[in-house]
């Protein structure tokens, strides 16, 4: 219980620091972000006094409102689910834009990361078990793929499989003509979305699987030299049982601990990857916010990405404490 209480406390403090940093960033930037947004919105049409006042309260301005009152007001709006109004697609609320884009990124990045993790752990365990044979040549190849930047690998895949071979669409997350008219998605739309997401998913898998394979292979080599493995072999257990029940299970523990940390790098890399494929996810939304100086949208996307990564780390910490009792007793 002490292990879980300490983890919850650490993540609550981290969440508070993240939200506070998200509040301070626009106020630490040179110039007046609020006035920039107001001027841009006024070029698109008339802006009400209420909207102008809300923008100044959210982003800060030269008004006489103390910083601590702005901070408390920010927390109050945040607890009500109010992240402000987007200038990029005025007057759409930021929460609505993120709610529409977040499922695309979660499904794409989540499934691709899980696939890369499972493939890397499975193949890495096999390579470590067959160390010194021809299968060791898989490690340099996958390591080279991991060293290639996301956007460069994405451009190569688009040029080969989309432009030259025409196997996949060049850009987008779905065909606009397949978009469902009602609130419920149709099978044609889902199949078309899967078809558009294959190349982005392959990009994430190829860029991530090498690290899992290399780490699991080295852990398998170290685990196979442990005394309990030698004892299991001396008892005459079948090699397959030793591989599955003794070696792979214990060698995979460090990889499980690093799974959530890697998720953060995948999410960060997906910002550029989604821009290459014009994929309608959070990464593309963040890119548009930066281009248009949409501070409210930037704050919202940054907050959602950070909370998502913190939640993934928290869940994996709990899982790690469950599968490895040593972590609970060494608090």
From TrEMBL:
It is found in: Cell membrane; Membrane. Gene3D superfamilies: MetI-like. PROSITE patterns: ABC_TM1 (PS50928). It comes from the Bacteria. Its main location: membrane. Residues 102-316 form the ABC transmembrane type-1 domain. The chain crosses the membrane at residues 7-25, 101-129, 150-174, 194-214, 251-277, 297-323. Pfam families: BPD_transp_1 (PF00528). GO terms for cellular component: plasma membrane. GO terms for biological process: transmembrane transport. Keywords: Membrane, Transmembrane, Transmembrane helix, Transport. It is a multi-pass membrane protein. The keyword Glycoprotein does not apply. The keyword Transport applies. PANTHER family: OLIGOPEPTIDE TRANSPORT SYSTEM PERMEASE PROTEIN. Belongs to the binding-protein-dependent transport system permease family. This is Peptide ABC transporter permease.
